[in-house]
Amino acid sequence: MSFELKTHLEEIISLTDQEFEHIAAHFKPKTLKKHQYLIQEDEFVNHIYFVVKGLLKATFTDANGKAYIIQFAMENWWLSDFRAFYGHVKSITNISCLENSELLSISKDDLDQLCRESHKMEHFFRIKNSLGYVALQQRILSLLTTSPKERFEQLAQQYPQLMQRVSKTIIAAYLGISRETLSRLSAKV
Amino acid sequence: MSFELKTHLEEIISLTDQEFEHIAAHFKPKTLKKHQYLIQEDEFVNHIYFVVKGLLKATFTDANGKAYIIQFAMENWWLSDFRAFYGHVKSITNISCLENSELLSISKDDLDQLCRESHKMEHFFRIKNSLGYVALQQRILSLLTTSPKERFEQLAQQYPQLMQRVSKTIIAAYLGISRETLSRLSAKV
Protein backbone atom coordinates (compact mmCIF):
# COMPACT_ATOMS: atom_id res chain seq x y z
CA MET A 1 0.00 0.00 0.00
CA SER A 2 2.41 2.66 1.11
CA PHE A 3 6.11 2.22 0.63
CA GLU A 4 6.66 5.36 2.75
CA LEU A 5 4.75 3.93 5.74
CA LYS A 6 6.64 0.63 5.57
CA THR A 7 10.02 2.38 5.45
CA HIS A 8 8.94 4.60 8.35
CA LEU A 9 7.76 1.69 10.55
CA GLU A 10 10.96 -0.22 9.79
CA GLU A 11 13.04 2.53 11.35
CA ILE A 12 11.82 1.10 14.68
CA ILE A 13 10.43 -2.42 14.05
CA SER A 14 11.14 -5.18 11.52
CA LEU A 15 8.15 -6.53 9.61
CA THR A 16 7.47 -9.38 7.20
CA ASP A 17 5.49 -8.49 4.06
CA GLN A 18 2.53 -10.34 5.54
CA GLU A 19 2.71 -8.39 8.81
CA PHE A 20 2.91 -5.10 6.92
CA GLU A 21 -0.11 -6.02 4.78
CA HIS A 22 -2.10 -6.68 7.94
CA ILE A 23 -1.03 -3.29 9.37
CA ALA A 24 -1.62 -1.39 6.13
CA ALA A 25 -5.17 -2.76 5.94
CA HIS A 26 -6.02 -0.58 8.97
CA PHE A 27 -5.06 2.66 7.15
CA LYS A 28 -7.03 4.63 4.57
CA PRO A 29 -5.57 7.11 2.07
CA LYS A 30 -6.73 10.73 2.23
CA THR A 31 -5.85 13.40 -0.33
CA LEU A 32 -6.22 17.12 0.36
CA LYS A 33 -5.45 20.19 -1.71
CA LYS A 34 -3.53 23.25 -0.54
CA HIS A 35 -5.68 25.37 1.83
CA GLN A 36 -8.09 22.49 2.59
CA TYR A 37 -8.76 21.63 6.23
CA LEU A 38 -7.92 18.26 7.77
CA ILE A 39 -9.33 19.08 11.22
CA GLN A 40 -11.47 22.05 12.22
CA GLU A 41 -11.93 23.64 15.62
CA ASP A 42 -14.89 22.35 17.63
CA GLU A 43 -15.03 18.94 15.93
CA PHE A 44 -14.51 15.58 17.63
CA VAL A 45 -11.35 13.95 16.30
CA ASN A 46 -11.38 10.24 15.57
CA HIS A 47 -8.24 9.77 13.46
CA ILE A 48 -4.51 10.27 13.47
CA TYR A 49 -2.69 10.87 10.19
CA PHE A 50 0.64 9.87 8.70
CA VAL A 51 1.96 12.35 6.13
CA VAL A 52 3.07 10.52 2.97
CA LYS A 53 3.60 13.75 1.01
CA GLY A 54 2.86 17.42 1.63
CA LEU A 55 2.97 20.00 4.36
CA LEU A 56 0.38 21.01 6.95
CA LYS A 57 0.06 23.45 9.82
CA ALA A 58 -1.88 23.30 13.10
CA THR A 59 -3.10 26.66 14.39
CA PHE A 60 -4.82 27.87 17.53
CA THR A 61 -6.89 31.05 17.51
CA ASP A 62 -7.32 32.88 20.81
CA ALA A 63 -10.41 34.76 22.06
CA ASN A 64 -9.16 37.96 20.40
CA GLY A 65 -8.83 36.29 17.00
CA LYS A 66 -5.04 36.10 17.07
CA ALA A 67 -3.79 32.91 15.36
CA TYR A 68 -0.75 30.96 16.60
CA ILE A 69 0.93 28.20 14.61
CA ILE A 70 1.59 25.45 17.11
CA GLN A 71 2.95 22.77 14.78
CA PHE A 72 4.00 21.92 11.25
CA ALA A 73 3.88 18.43 9.77
CA MET A 74 5.56 17.13 6.64
CA GLU A 75 6.67 13.80 5.14
CA ASN A 76 6.90 10.96 7.73
CA TRP A 77 5.28 12.95 10.55
CA TRP A 78 2.20 11.89 12.50
CA LEU A 79 -0.45 14.53 12.97
CA SER A 80 -3.77 15.08 14.70
CA ASP A 81 -5.30 17.14 17.48
CA PHE A 82 -3.95 14.56 19.95
CA ARG A 83 -5.66 16.17 22.93
CA ALA A 84 -9.03 15.76 21.22
CA PHE A 85 -8.12 12.31 19.84
CA TYR A 86 -6.99 10.76 23.14
CA GLY A 87 -9.28 12.76 25.43
CA HIS A 88 -12.57 12.38 23.50
CA VAL A 89 -13.05 16.15 23.57
CA LYS A 90 -13.56 18.66 20.76
CA SER A 91 -10.58 20.03 18.85
CA ILE A 92 -9.28 23.46 19.78
CA THR A 93 -7.03 23.62 16.70
CA ASN A 94 -7.44 23.98 12.96
CA ILE A 95 -5.18 21.81 10.82
CA SER A 96 -4.88 22.80 7.17
CA CYS A 97 -2.65 22.14 4.17
CA LEU A 98 0.16 24.47 3.12
CA GLU A 99 0.70 22.21 0.07
CA ASN A 100 -1.31 19.50 -1.68
CA SER A 101 -1.04 16.58 0.75
CA GLU A 102 -1.33 12.80 0.71
CA LEU A 103 -2.07 11.22 4.09
CA LEU A 104 -2.84 7.84 5.59
CA SER A 105 -5.47 7.85 8.31
CA ILE A 106 -6.20 5.36 11.09
CA SER A 107 -9.19 5.58 13.42
CA LYS A 108 -9.01 5.36 17.22
CA ASP A 109 -10.72 1.94 17.20
CA ASP A 110 -8.40 0.61 14.49
CA LEU A 111 -5.31 1.97 16.24
CA ASP A 112 -6.32 0.34 19.53
CA GLN A 113 -7.17 -2.93 17.80
CA LEU A 114 -3.94 -2.94 15.80
CA CYS A 115 -1.87 -2.34 18.94
CA ARG A 116 -3.78 -5.10 20.77
CA GLU A 117 -3.22 -7.57 17.91
CA SER A 118 0.36 -6.57 17.20
CA HIS A 119 2.87 -6.20 20.01
CA LYS A 120 5.29 -4.80 17.39
CA MET A 121 2.92 -1.93 16.59
CA GLU A 122 2.32 -1.26 20.29
CA HIS A 123 6.11 -1.04 20.60
CA PHE A 124 6.37 1.23 17.55
CA PHE A 125 3.91 3.75 18.98
CA ARG A 126 5.43 3.57 22.49
CA ILE A 127 8.81 4.55 21.06
CA LYS A 128 7.31 7.09 18.64
CA ASN A 129 5.34 8.73 21.47
CA SER A 130 8.44 8.90 23.65
CA LEU A 131 10.43 10.59 20.84
CA GLY A 132 7.53 13.03 20.36
CA TYR A 133 7.55 13.76 24.10
CA VAL A 134 11.28 14.54 24.01
CA ALA A 135 10.85 16.83 20.97
CA LEU A 136 8.13 18.79 22.77
CA GLN A 137 10.28 19.08 25.92
CA GLN A 138 13.02 20.59 23.73
CA ARG A 139 10.49 23.04 22.26
CA ILE A 140 9.38 24.09 25.78
CA LEU A 141 13.00 24.58 26.80
CA SER A 142 13.57 26.63 23.67
CA LEU A 143 10.46 28.78 24.34
CA LEU A 144 11.55 29.38 27.94
CA THR A 145 15.22 30.07 27.40
CA THR A 146 15.96 31.38 23.91
CA SER A 147 15.35 34.62 22.05
CA PRO A 148 13.30 34.72 18.80
CA LYS A 149 16.62 35.11 16.96
CA GLU A 150 17.98 31.88 18.46
CA ARG A 151 14.69 30.08 17.77
CA PHE A 152 14.83 31.17 14.15
CA GLU A 153 18.40 29.86 13.83
CA GLN A 154 17.46 26.54 15.50
CA LEU A 155 14.52 26.12 13.11
CA ALA A 156 16.64 26.95 10.05
CA GLN A 157 19.27 24.46 11.15
CA GLN A 158 16.87 21.67 12.16
CA TYR A 159 14.45 21.97 9.22
CA PRO A 160 16.22 23.70 6.32
CA GLN A 161 13.58 22.20 3.96
CA LEU A 162 10.78 23.90 5.88
CA MET A 163 12.33 27.34 5.33
CA GLN A 164 12.23 26.76 1.56
CA ARG A 165 8.64 25.50 1.51
CA VAL A 166 6.91 27.99 3.81
CA SER A 167 6.35 31.73 3.51
CA LYS A 168 8.08 34.15 5.89
CA THR A 169 4.68 35.20 7.25
CA ILE A 170 4.00 31.61 8.35
CA ILE A 171 7.48 31.18 9.89
CA ALA A 172 6.99 34.44 11.81
CA ALA A 173 3.62 33.21 13.16
CA TYR A 174 5.30 29.98 14.33
CA LEU A 175 8.10 31.87 16.10
CA GLY A 176 5.66 34.32 17.65
CA ILE A 177 7.35 37.38 16.10
CA SER A 178 6.32 39.98 13.52
CA ARG A 179 7.04 39.59 9.80
CA GLU A 180 9.35 42.62 10.02
CA THR A 181 11.41 41.17 12.90
CA LEU A 182 11.80 37.91 10.94
CA SER A 183 13.05 39.77 7.84
CA ARG A 184 15.67 41.47 9.98
CA LEU A 185 16.76 38.12 11.49
CA SER A 186 16.83 36.18 8.23
CA ALA A 187 18.87 38.90 6.48
CA LYS A 188 21.61 38.27 9.05
CA VAL A 189 21.80 34.47 8.72
CA MET B 1 6.43 -4.21 46.66
CA SER B 2 4.75 -0.91 45.96
CA PHE B 3 1.04 -0.52 46.44
CA GLU B 4 1.30 2.92 44.80
CA LEU B 5 2.86 1.53 41.61
CA LYS B 6 0.24 -1.23 41.34
CA THR B 7 -2.62 1.24 41.76
CA HIS B 8 -1.00 3.54 39.20
CA LEU B 9 -0.53 0.77 36.58
CA GLU B 10 -4.09 -0.42 37.10
CA GLU B 11 -5.43 2.95 35.99
CA ILE B 12 -4.54 1.75 32.48
CA ILE B 13 -4.04 -2.04 32.56
CA SER B 14 -5.40 -4.90 34.69
CA LEU B 15 -2.87 -7.18 36.35
CA THR B 16 -2.92 -10.43 38.30
CA ASP B 17 -0.83 -10.48 41.50
CA GLN B 18 1.64 -12.73 39.72
CA GLU B 19 1.97 -10.35 36.76
CA PHE B 20 2.53 -7.43 39.12
CA GLU B 21 5.22 -9.32 41.05
CA HIS B 22 7.04 -9.98 37.78
CA ILE B 23 6.83 -6.25 36.88
CA ALA B 24 7.82 -5.03 40.34
CA ALA B 25 10.94 -7.21 40.26
CA HIS B 26 12.32 -4.88 37.55
CA PHE B 27 12.12 -1.82 39.84
CA LYS B 28 14.46 -0.76 42.64
CA PRO B 29 13.60 1.61 45.50
CA LYS B 30 15.58 4.84 45.84
CA THR B 31 15.32 7.27 48.75
CA LEU B 32 16.57 10.85 48.59
CA LYS B 33 16.52 13.69 51.08
CA LYS B 34 15.40 17.26 50.42
CA HIS B 35 18.01 19.14 48.32
CA GLN B 36 19.69 15.91 47.10
CA TYR B 37 20.19 15.44 43.37
CA LEU B 38 18.60 12.61 41.39
CA ILE B 39 20.22 13.57 38.04
CA GLN B 40 22.99 16.07 37.45
CA GLU B 41 23.88 17.97 34.31
CA ASP B 42 26.48 16.31 32.06
CA GLU B 43 25.78 12.76 33.26
CA PHE B 44 24.51 9.91 31.10
CA VAL B 45 21.03 8.88 32.26
CA ASN B 46 20.19 5.20 32.45
CA HIS B 47 16.99 5.18 34.54
CA ILE B 48 13.47 6.54 34.68
CA TYR B 49 11.81 7.08 38.03
CA PHE B 50 8.29 6.69 39.44
CA VAL B 51 7.58 9.01 42.36
CA VAL B 52 6.02 7.06 45.25
CA LYS B 53 6.23 10.01 47.65
CA GLY B 54 7.84 13.44 47.54
CA LEU B 55 8.37 16.36 45.21
CA LEU B 56 11.17 17.09 42.74
CA LYS B 57 12.08 19.77 40.25
CA ALA B 58 13.99 19.65 36.95
CA THR B 59 15.98 22.77 36.12
CA PHE B 60 17.98 23.98 33.16
CA THR B 61 20.75 26.56 33.59
CA ASP B 62 21.65 28.70 30.58
CA ALA B 63 25.11 29.96 29.55
CA ASN B 64 24.61 33.09 31.67
CA GLY B 65 23.86 31.06 34.79
CA LYS B 66 20.12 31.79 34.78
CA ALA B 67 18.14 28.77 36.04
CA TYR B 68 14.74 27.77 34.58
CA ILE B 69 12.44 25.24 36.19
CA ILE B 70 11.17 23.09 33.35
CA GLN B 71 9.20 20.49 35.29
CA PHE B 72 7.93 19.43 38.68
CA ALA B 73 7.20 15.83 39.66
CA MET B 74 5.21 14.53 42.59
CA GLU B 75 3.35 11.37 43.64
CA ASN B 76 2.47 9.09 40.67
CA TRP B 77 4.56 11.02 38.12
CA TRP B 78 7.33 9.55 35.99
CA LEU B 79 10.52 11.53 35.83
CA SER B 80 13.92 11.52 34.14
CA ASP B 81 15.91 13.54 31.66
CA PHE B 82 14.04 11.74 28.89
CA ARG B 83 16.13 13.31 26.12
CA ALA B 84 19.29 11.88 27.70
CA PHE B 85 17.57 8.57 28.59
CA TYR B 86 16.16 7.82 25.11
CA GLY B 87 18.88 9.54 23.09
CA HIS B 88 21.96 8.13 24.89
CA VAL B 89 23.31 11.65 25.34
CA LYS B 90 24.37 13.54 28.48
CA SER B 91 21.77 15.26 30.63
CA ILE B 92 21.31 19.02 30.21
CA THR B 93 19.13 19.25 33.32
CA ASN B 94 19.56 18.97 37.06
CA ILE B 95 16.82 17.10 38.92
CA SER B 96 16.70 17.60 42.67
CA CYS B 97 14.34 17.05 45.60
CA LEU B 98 12.14 19.80 47.03
CA GLU B 99 11.02 17.32 49.73
CA ASN B 100 12.34 13.99 51.03
CA SER B 101 11.42 11.60 48.23
CA GLU B 102 10.79 7.89 47.71
CA LEU B 103 11.19 6.70 44.14
CA LEU B 104 11.17 3.47 42.16
CA SER B 105 13.77 3.25 39.40
CA ILE B 106 13.92 1.09 36.31
CA SER B 107 16.94 0.92 33.97
CA LYS B 108 16.75 1.29 30.18
CA ASP B 109 17.60 -2.40 29.67
CA ASP B 110 15.00 -3.52 32.21
CA LEU B 111 12.34 -1.23 30.73
CA ASP B 112 12.97 -2.55 27.23
CA GLN B 113 13.01 -6.15 28.46
CA LEU B 114 9.84 -5.68 30.51
CA CYS B 115 8.03 -4.17 27.52
CA ARG B 116 9.24 -7.02 25.28
CA GLU B 117 8.07 -9.66 27.77
CA SER B 118 4.82 -7.96 28.68
CA HIS B 119 2.51 -6.61 25.99
CA LYS B 120 0.46 -5.08 28.81
CA MET B 121 3.42 -2.98 29.98
CA GLU B 122 4.23 -1.94 26.41
CA HIS B 123 0.60 -0.80 26.21
CA PHE B 124 0.84 1.01 29.56
CA PHE B 125 3.84 3.06 28.45
CA ARG B 126 2.38 3.75 24.99
CA ILE B 127 -0.71 5.29 26.61
CA LYS B 128 1.30 7.03 29.35
CA ASN B 129 3.65 8.54 26.74
CA SER B 130 0.73 9.74 24.66
CA LEU B 131 -0.84 11.44 27.70
CA GLY B 132 2.53 13.04 28.47
CA TYR B 133 2.74 14.28 24.88
CA VAL B 134 -0.69 15.89 25.14
CA ALA B 135 0.21 17.55 28.46
CA LEU B 136 3.36 19.06 26.91
CA GLN B 137 1.38 20.29 23.88
CA GLN B 138 -0.95 22.08 26.30
CA ARG B 139 2.04 23.64 28.06
CA ILE B 140 3.43 24.88 24.71
CA LEU B 141 0.03 26.35 23.82
CA SER B 142 -0.08 28.00 27.22
CA LEU B 143 3.45 29.44 26.82
CA LEU B 144 2.59 30.77 23.36
CA THR B 145 -0.83 32.21 24.05
CA THR B 146 -1.30 33.16 27.71
CA SER B 147 0.02 35.85 30.02
CA PRO B 148 1.99 35.02 33.20
CA LYS B 149 -1.18 35.91 35.14
CA GLU B 150 -3.23 33.32 33.21
CA ARG B 151 -0.46 30.71 33.58
CA PHE B 152 -0.40 31.28 37.33
CA GLU B 153 -4.18 30.82 37.52
CA GLN B 154 -4.02 27.65 35.38
CA LEU B 155 -1.31 26.20 37.63
CA ALA B 156 -3.21 27.05 40.81
CA GLN B 157 -6.34 25.44 39.40
CA GLN B 158 -4.65 22.33 37.98
CA TYR B 159 -2.27 21.62 40.87
CA PRO B 160 -3.62 23.29 44.03
CA GLN B 161 -1.45 20.89 46.09
CA LEU B 162 1.71 22.14 44.41
CA MET B 163 0.98 25.73 45.45
CA GLN B 164 0.89 24.59 49.09
CA ARG B 165 4.09 22.57 48.89
CA VAL B 166 6.40 24.87 46.94
CA SER B 167 7.82 28.31 47.77
CA LYS B 168 6.73 31.37 45.79
CA THR B 169 10.31 31.79 44.53
CA ILE B 170 10.14 28.33 42.93
CA ILE B 171 6.69 28.94 41.41
CA ALA B 172 7.95 32.25 39.96
CA ALA B 173 10.96 30.47 38.38
CA TYR B 174 8.59 27.92 36.80
CA LEU B 175 6.33 30.63 35.37
CA GLY B 176 9.31 32.65 34.14
CA ILE B 177 8.36 35.76 36.14
CA SER B 178 9.92 37.66 39.03
CA ARG B 179 9.07 36.91 42.66
CA GLU B 180 7.52 40.41 42.94
CA THR B 181 5.24 39.91 39.93
CA LEU B 182 4.08 36.58 41.41
CA SER B 183 3.25 38.20 44.76
CA ARG B 184 1.12 40.76 42.95
CA LEU B 185 -0.69 38.02 40.99
CA SER B 186 -1.26 35.69 43.94
CA ALA B 187 -2.62 38.51 46.10
CA LYS B 188 -5.42 38.94 43.55
CA VAL B 189 -6.50 35.27 43.33
UniProtKB/TrEMBL annotation, chains A, B:
Matches recorded under InterPro entries: cNMP-bd_dom (IPR000595), cNMP-bd_dom_sf (IPR018490), Env_Response_Regulators (IPR050397), RmlC-like_jellyroll (IPR014710)
Annotated GO MF terms: DNA-binding transcription factor activity
One of the record's GO cellular component terms: cytosol
Q: Which parts of the sequence belong to the Cyclic nucleotide-binding domain?
A: 11-114
Q: Which domain of life is it from?
A: Bacteria
Under the heading PROSITE patterns, the entry gives: CNMP_BINDING_3 (PS50042)
Please give the name of this protein: Crp/Fnr family transcriptional regulator
